[in-house]
Predict the 3D structure of the following.
Amino acid sequence: MSHDEIYIKQIAAELNLRPANVGATTELLEGGASVPFISRYRKEATGSLDEVAVTAIRDRLQQLRELDKRRAVILSSIQEQGKLTEDLKDNILGAETMSELEDLYLPYKPKRRTRATVAKEKGLEPLAKLIFEQKDFDVEKEAGKYLDAEKKVETILDALAGARDIIAEWVNENAAAREKIRQLYFDKGVFSAKVISGKEEAGKNYKDYFEWQEDVKSAPSHRLLAVRRAEKEEVLMLKVIVPENEALNILDGQFVVAKNRAAQEVQIAIADSFKRLLSYSMETEIRLLTKETADKEAIRVFGENLRQLLMAPALGQHPVMAIDPGFRTGCKVVCLDAQGKFLANETIYPTGSQFEQEEAARTLKILCQRHKVEFIAIGNGTASRETENFVRKSGLPTNIQVITVNESGASIYSASDVAREEFPDQDVTVRGAISIGRRLMDPLAELVKIDPKSIGVGQYQHDVDQSLLKQGLDDIVISCVNLVGVELNTASKQLLTYVSGLGPSRAQAIIDFRNEHGAFRSRQQLSKVAKLGAKAIEQAAGFLRIRDGENALDASAVHPESYCIVDLMAKDLGCSVTQMMTQDALRQRIDLKNYVTDTIGLPTLNDIISELSKPGRDPREKFEVFRFADGVEKPEDLKLGMKLTGIVTNITNFGAFVDIGVHLDGLVHISQMSDKFVRDPNDVVKVSQKVKITVVEVDLERKRIALSMKNNPGMHFGSTKR
């Protein structure tokens, strides 16, 4: 049985999937197919596995291969030492985790000089072996035989100490003992943190952890990451402790086999091994393993927040004015047409002198009239509420809607290579305002230009494994982009980059073709684009949309490989494809069983019919205008018991942060999210959701606002589902 066959069998068992479906998915992944393509267009092969299952197969496959690579290195190393026995080889081949592998390798792993190696150099290993066997003999008399002044073994105590050092290392390197102690750390280990003397004031943000203890098995990821960050900032000391007597009892039970003088020496060596070697080794392991778990959980939460933000409702194609507010430097104002094209910019000073305010109002009126503005987007940063109040009172037509937009990451974008490439003649402030306006029109299209870590929906994103974070967030962005679909003739290079099968170079090739030949009229033209081979087109075509193209299906998610099926359906109905797409009665006459082939089954056919009913539909929810409460613009304006509306900006395991328009997000702790018990905040709210809250605490010194969603009937504005 090949490695891949073994992997497929194991993954199928672990994920409770059919081996044939796992095998087909593995083959597609190996062939370069993307996760969205496999889950959307290869349902017959995979048994309709969704993106979550396909991603799980991909990731587990990678883990198993990495495990086998390490296994091969270990076998080779021990083989070169001439110490690879058949039993050891079988154990290594049978190890199922990296910890098991490393435990088996530890006695053979090249190491620096230790107390044990020094003792072995003094010729004390035979004495250690004799003591470790724990037979009845005169220990002191036997130890006396190893005295050697040249080797600095001058007394019997020196000889016994050296022998114990060797035994201590054997205990530390015993795989069975390590596994038992490791389990003890998982079962009864406790994280213990204390503030470093003199760091109380500098570390006041970590005050909750100055005297903190929590079980290893139950410590939430967010608390663990917070404590580790405080440790890194040298505010706290963090340790992992276990009941020492229980650890020694486990080790004594493993190694002590007699009740004699030699056994006493072994017990002393065991105690030394635990305190000097094993406890530190296990603490390091537990810290690494729990950090890995915490990282994965933090990345999962971050990814879920990112998905919700990317899938936030889009305003759509409307002329927009965008304002990046500011006090001293004024507000940057830009106008965009319905497609997001930059038209004009000005700087106004709505918080300046009376003359400057009058000029600002006049400028706004002229720009709105000239560019037929329908919506005004105002960034939620400094001076946001003051600017919003000014705009609302500036005498603009009442049909123009004013909307506050989360501007997190806009400044990062404005200084990026992407922004400089898009707007080489504009400064960073203008680019930032453009980003705010476009974010209102289509959050997904604009946010893909920004590093997800800078968007402002995660916690501890700089503390977690960066490679895992990047892969996890890239998966989310790719999933969202391909779920929504991309307009081929207007999409930016950054948006096209995330389309299945493309990437940066092919996205640029599409842009170059579009610039040279004009708008695409059909998906067939993709074959004329440089760098786009048949495989890339197969992967990408179904996710690219052409509005008002030559073929009505090009605006839908129906893959070109299935066009022949749709044409056959229309022919059998005696109508055109367009008629079939617009008339429900015609589609209801279709018997899908008549169109099943060797490669296309009912799952794909059902998807086709669903798509034909609403071709190219946007899966995002309908956009709704939101407005913060008047007169509440800064934390000092808040009063206990005040009821307000806000927008969820970030979700963690311990609650949700809500923007209530005071330049400081408040926290709705998980215990305050509902009158009922809440296990996961995502079960109650989503990022960008509008909620009603009550102010329960305001700590101006620590810049903390506590909110509650309890006893707020109808606190949800619309569905939380995405």
Remarks:
- The longest helix spans residues 261-310.
- The chain has a mean pLDDT of 91.
- Residues 497-613 form a domain with the DNA polymerase; domain 1 fold (CATH 1.10.150.310).
- The two ends are 43 Å apart (CA to CA).
